[in-house]
Amino acid sequence: MKAGDITDRKYFDAPPAVLRITPFGIFVDQAGYYPRDTKKAVIPFECESFTVTDMIGNVRYSGKTVYAGADEASGDNVRIADFSELTEKGSYCVRAGGRTSAMFRIGDDIYDDVFMKTSKAFYYLRCGCGLDERHAGVWHHGKCHTAPAKLWEDRNVTLDVSGGWHDAGDYGRYVTAGACAVSHLLYAFRLFPEAFEKQKLNIPEEGLPDILSEVRCELEWFLKMQNGEGGVYHKATTALHAPFVMPEDDTAEMFVFPVSSMATADLAAVCALASGVYSAYDKTFSDRLLKAAEKSVEWLERNPQFIGFTNPEGCNTGGYGERDDLSNRFWAYSEMYALTGERKYHDRLVSALEKDFPLTALGYGEVGGVGALAYILCEREKDTALLDRLKKEFLSLAEELKKKADKCGYGIAMESSDYYWGSNMGLMTKAMIFAVTDVLYGDHSCREYACRHIHCLLGANALGISYVTGAGEFRCNYPHLRPAFADGIEECIPGMVAGGPNKYLSDPFAANVIPKGTPPMKCYADDTASYSLNEITIYWNSPTVFVLAYLCTYNRP
Ligand code: 9MR
Ligand code: ZN
Q: How many other C-beta atoms are found inside a 10 Å radius of the C-beta of residue 403?
């Protein structure tokens, strides 16, 4: 097939070999289970008993399955094989009814590899610098997108906006999406520093914990996206999505799109957050971030009105439009207060809270939950009523999610309505809520729920597939990711989290290939063409890294 025509393929004429059905039929977390944790395989067919065998076929555990009922989102009648009593470290399979699960391990380090790979994924998405063989292995490539960009609205103005990370399967770079990913990574670093301090990503930089060197690439790019007045350009992309070529071969003209108030608020927030984190390592960089944050916050003061974003005519790259900037402004003031302790920012964040927006959202649009974290974690004078309110928000959401999860055959807080574009982000941000509720509010029962969501991502789902490239015996390998297609290498760049099942089948491939009436949790195909099922993005990786950092830190039941 010719590179570049990936989404136009006529799949219905020739069904692709890559629309794969799991060869296993018994679903487990293919990374595995911590020795003392709950361990459950999901079996979607009739069977009374099961065994767990080691790799030479010896039975190491046997038990009875428990019928868990009809599960709506998967359409499965689900049975559970609970082998929590098996605590001995090793490699195993679950067997029942003549079928065998994928291989998995029981051990203390089961998530170390996938934690490393999902963290390293950001390096593979770096823009502007090229990836050398020493650090990128076979997935090395040349420098990309280094030419000066033009302002979309005034083509006489050129800017250097090189750097940062490609957003996703496309080569665009978008400020609000980047701020979301960086916020997850930096809060993960703040809450679970030990997990990162020992993590080796094999990236070019030295001197900082690797994750901070990686995040710095994106921060340096954010700084270039700020204009002289403190306003922040919404995105830097070509006019149209690139064909499926390597990044260095995408030589179309780069444009910088108009300022939005969401991008400006998010930049203020994320630079303030980062200024605090990097102050322990690099005072000069931390000061630059503080100055940038102040400048954007001043812009927000001068521009109280919402300045949204929609693609201008002639541009088809990502929009990341929002309906308002309420949560973004709250996040900015909250981070500024946390960083500086200045009363005026407290006043601002309190007045931002007079408007209604979700206070636990950890997305790329709604960012209220990140603003809440900034406030909860800051060591400044705090309003106890507000702290209480935030605590209640997290605790009651966690309770609600637990109830949902207990109703689901796969043990996760996902209902049919949660399977939309990028459902794995919902899966992972729910796990983040559990992680936060455990570590900040001491509800340790949340840990098992967080675990179940990672189990689902890594194979304990209705298709039995690991949604992370390079991780698990039966895993996705053909994401909608330009370099992964164009490099001609069979094994995909590792550590990329696929968007996952999307019942709306929002692209031509999905609409034509997934049969109508397929249950939401099964609306997925591992095919490059399907951008609404199988793209990857930085903000699907970042919550995954957060949750894995948490689990690697709190390796206890
Ligand atoms: O992740 C975004 C998803 O929530 C939206 O439904 C979708 C359609 O607007 O866009 C997704 O974001 C894409 C972005 O616009 C461009 N880069 C790739 C992103 C992931 O598909
Ligand atoms: Zn690039």
A: 11
Full residue range of the structural domain in which residue 206 is found: 112-382
For residue 403, the one-letter residue type is: K
Find the residues whose C-beta lies inside 6 A of ligand 1: 167-168, 170, 172, 318-320, 421-422, 531, 535, 537
Q: Is 518 exposed, middle or buried (0-12, 13-18, 19+ CB in 10 A)?
A: middle
> Which burial class, exposed, middle or buried, applies to 472 when counting CB atoms under 10 A from its CB (0-12, 13-18, 19+)?
buried
Shortest CA distance to 185 belongs to which of 498, 484, 550?
A: 550
In the chain, the number of structural domains is 1
Q: What does the pLDDT average to over 332-361?
A: 98
- How do residues 514-528 score in pLDDT, each as one tens digit? 999 999 999 999 999
Cα(252) to centroid(ligand 2), Å: 11
Please give, one letter per residue, the 3-state secondary structure of 310-337.
Answer: CCCCCCCCCCCCCCCCHHHHHHHHHHHH
Residue 145 Cα to ligand 1 midpoint, Å, equals 21
Judge whether 136 lies within some domain.
yes
Residue 24 included in any domain: no
Burial code of 444-468, b = ≥16 C-beta within 10 A, e = fewer? eebbbbbbbbbbbbbbbbbbbbbbb
List residues with catalytic annotation. 170, 480, 526, 535
C-alpha span between 346 and 381 (Å, rounded): 10
What are the residues whose beta carbons fall under 8 Å from the beta carbon of 340, sequence distance 6 or more? none
CATH number at residue 152: 1.50.10.10
- What is the per-residue pLDDT across 21-78, written as a single tens digit (0 to 9) for each? 567 899 999 999 999 999 999 999 999 999 999 999 999 999 999 999 999 999 999 9
> For residues 296 and 487, what is the distance between their CA atoms, to the nearest angstrom?
39
Domain membership flag for residue 285: yes
Provide the edge-to-edge strand list for the sheet that holds 76-82: 40-43, 76-82, 66-71
Residue 117 lies in a domain: yes
**To which H or E segment does residue 43 belong?**
strand 40-43
Q: What predicted TM-score, i.e. pTM, was given to this entire model? A: 0.97
Closest Cα partner for 190 from 221, 211, 219, 168?
211
